[in-house]
Each structure stands twice: as C-alpha cells, then as structure tokens.
Specification:
Length: about 170
C-alpha cells in the first residue's frame, strides 16, 4: 500500500517494497490531489509485485542513465581516468538520454526476427549493454570464464588503459 503524505498544498505518494528487511524498490511522486496520489501509488506497487522490481526498474531507466552510472563507478575506482574518456562517456550519455532500455530490448527482439538469425540475440545484447566492455573482449569470453557459484566473469586479454599490450 502506498504511503501518502500531505506536503503543503500537494500530496507525496511513496511506494516502498521490502524483502528480508531490505528495500528492493522505492519510488515517489508529487500530486495536486490525494486521489491522484493514491491511484498512482497502487499502479507501480501492483506492477512490481507482478513483474518483480528489476523488470519494472529496467523499463524506466534510459541508456544515458546507464552510461552515467558506469562513468560514476569508473571515476570512483579509477580516479586518474583521462579527460577524453570522461568527455566521450558524457557525449554518449547525452546522445542516449531519451532512449529507454525497454525500447532497446524491443529493437533487439525486432532484429531477432531476421531470417539469418539462428540464435536468440536478446540475452547477448542485454549482457553487452549491462557489461560495458569492448566487443573483442566480450567475444573472446568462453564458458570456462563464467563462475556461476561466485556469480563472476573473467574477461581475458582486456586492453590496458595506458599500455598498448593486453593483460589478463
């Protein structure tokens, strides 16, 4: 059930869903009328309970936001990231600011219908989008590089940021 709070002359609707004491979904929006807030709050809650939090969140996120998140993580873990790399990421994020990931998966499904496609490419496209690596690095990945128990992937021969050679 959504939480509705009066804020001045408007109403704040909040939907928070917890699992095992951890918030797995949280969304809020401000409305002019309490009825509108209540109606809105019921919809995402029902959708999340039906589809799960990850699918609902993925339908709203844009490719630009994914690039921004990736860049923020890169800056956090690699503080000496070059200005050109940051600039290129920002250009890409701006170009894809309005493209939703869910729209992209629809395009992937359309491309899957091509008469020469013999395997389901949607998981491959989705993985490539979620794991921003070079195409060659992803293409060289083998089954032996996937550890399902630890939920990790080993990428071999990744390009070194400063040197011309590859390293494992």
């Amino acid at each position: 059930m959504p939480s509705i709070q009066k804020r001045g002359d408007k109403f704040l609707a909040q939907v928070r869903i917890k699992q095992g004491g951890v918030v797995i979904f949280s969304e809020s929006k401000v409305f002019e009328k309490e009825v509108m807030a209540k109606t809105w709050g019921d919809r995402p809650e029902a959708k999340v309970k039906k589809e799960g939090p990850a699918k609902h969140a993925a339908s709203k996120i844009t490719v630009g936001e994914l690039v921004d998140r990736h860049l923020a993580a890169q800056i956090k873990y690699r503080p000496l990231l070059g200005r050109s790399t940051i600039h290129n990421h920002q250009k890409i994020a701006d170009a894809f600011r309005k493209v939703k990931v869910s729209d992209l998966t629809k395009e992937f499904a359309r491309r899957n219908q091509h008469h020469q496609t013999s395997i389901d490419m949607i998981p491959i496209y989705s993985f490539a989008l979620a794991c921003p690596r070079r195409l060659g690095e992803l293409g060289k990945m083998g089954w032996k590089d996937i550890d399902t128990k630890r939920r990790t992937i080993l990428l071999r021969q990744v390009k070194h940021p400063k040197k011309k050679e590859y390293h494992d």
